[in-house]
Amino acid sequence: MKKKKRLGILTGGGDCAGLNAVIRAAVRTADSLGWESVGIQESFGGLLNIKRSRVLRPVDVRGILHTGGTILGTTNHGDPFNFPKRTSKGTEYADRSGEVVRNFKKLGLEGLVIIGGDGTLKIGLRFQRLGIPVVGVPKTIDNDVAATQITFGFDTAVSIATEALDRLHTTAFSHRRVMVLEVMGRNVGWIALHAGIAGGADVILIPEIPFDIDKVCAKIRDRARRGRRFSIVVTSEGAVPKGGVQKFQAAAEAGREARLGGIGEIVSDRICDVTGAETRAIVLGHLQRGGRPTNFDRLLGTRFGSSAVRAAIEGKWGRMVALRPPSIQLVPLEKAVAHIKRVPKGSDVVRAARDLGISFGD
Ligand code: F6P
Fold it and tell me: Same domain, yes or no, for 277 and 307?
């Protein structure tokens, strides 16, 4: 019997809803086109220790379409070009990319389908240049990957944040409070903007539009003057006050990237001090990443997984699948990682929010 060609599949960076939908679609598409899939465990770490890689057949991806997380495991600190190792002196870094290339060949793979955000796709591009053929699939709740209208995972995160805002409304109304919800998004404000509009927020703070706390307070006072019992503020974790800096969590562990967080509490305290309103800050955190994907993310993940495998089988390496409505298209990986996709300040979405009286604090 003729040996089947093999395709490696890995997930990298933070998890999000829809990863399993991509894996399932990729494995089933490969199988129906006569190729074999190999699941690489724990991102590129699975190419440093190939005992962790296993053949994935359609039966292995049964029942995962609606599940969160990734059956392959993932990490956001396993860059083989700068691979961390804990020693008695702390964390040291080594370039282990050569081992990855050797193990890729040992596994007899034709190429890799790399499912990840900006960071993982950049690593993928470096391996493409070292001779490992790759196709990228854009993943992240942040929606910050350029060249695709939407990344999978984003819609689920927005749905969860919107539901949180719905729930906060009832407490805000009952107690006459100002509720400040901090959402994820790193350096872009897509989640806050979309959930803020869908969830009926009064103030939306995003990194792309530095805010003036006095303007935020003026909006809240104005609502109170007009007899409104409460106000809802949604802030991106990366939102920044005019002339100020982003807020990071206290102790960044040695060798780890500093993590954004805490701006919600600051905004909440300032609103309380300036307006006298009773305020509460809520951090939604990783709830935005876990759990069941929305139908949109299941469908997008499925389309991405199937298109990525077709691209690989057709030898269209060095590309990323991208949603360019109405179709999924292939874009050069270089283009996808050249910059992150920020919220355009003049977009119709921002304009619609302003038309509705939502304040950006500017
Ligand atoms: O990039 C996805 C994301 O969830 C960001 O929105 C957030 O800043 C970061 O990852 C959190 O990372 P970790 O899971 O390492 O805390």
Answer: no
pLDDT exceeds cutoff 90 at 86:
no
- β partners of residue 220: none
Question: Does 56 map to a domain?
Answer: yes
Which of 77, 184, 260 is the best mutation target for the ligand 1 pocket, counting ligand atoms within 8 Å of the beta carbon and taking the most?
A: 184
Q: Torsions phi, psi of 69, nearest 5?
A: 70, -165
Q: What is the pLDDT of residues 5-26, one digit of tens each?
A: 999 999 999 999 999 999 999 9
Whether residues 110 and 179 share a domain: the answer is no
261 CA → ligand 1 middle, Å: 10
Count structural domains, the chain. 2
> Which ligand 1 atom sits closest to the C-alpha of 117?
1
Which residue has a Cα nearest atom 8 of ligand 1? 186
Q: What would the pLDDT profile of 30-58 be if each residue is shown by its tens digit?
A: 999 999 999 999 999 999 999 989 999 99
The whole-number pLDDT of residue 89 equals 83
Can you give the CATH number for the domain in which 90 is found? 3.40.50.450
Range of the domain at 47: 6-152+293-325
DSSP string, 279-324: EEEEE-GGGGTSSPPPHHHHHHHHHHHHHHHHHHHTT--SEEEEEE
Average pLDDT score over residue span 116-125: 98
Q: Distance, CA 298 to ligand 1 centroid (Å)?
A: 21
User: Which residues form the catalytic set?
Assistant: 142
The pLDDT-based confidence of 318 (bands split at 50, 70, 90) is: very high
The rounded Å distance from CA 354 to ligand 1 centre is 28
Q: Do 144 and 211 lie in a common domain?
A: no
Q: Are residues 56 and 80 in the same domain?
A: yes
Same domain membership, residue 315 and residue 196:
no
Spell out which residues line ligand 1, taking CB within 6 angstroms.
14, 76, 117, 140-142, 184-186, 237, 259-260, 289
- CATH code for the domain of 166: 3.40.50.460
Is residue 108 domain-shared with residue 203, that is, in the same domain?
no
Q: Are 75 and 120 in contact (CB under 8 A)?
A: no
Q: Determine how β-strand 134-138 pairs with β-strand 109-116.
A: parallel
What does the DSSP 8-state code read for residue 21? Answer: H
Distance 285 CA to ligand 1 centre (A): 8
In a domain, 334, yes or no: no
- Ligand 1 atom nearest to CA at 289: 4
pLDDT at 254 over 80: no
Q: If we measure between CA atoms, which residue out of 262, 23, 20, 290 comes closest to residue 157?
A: 290
The pLDDT of 316-336, averaged and rounded, is: 98
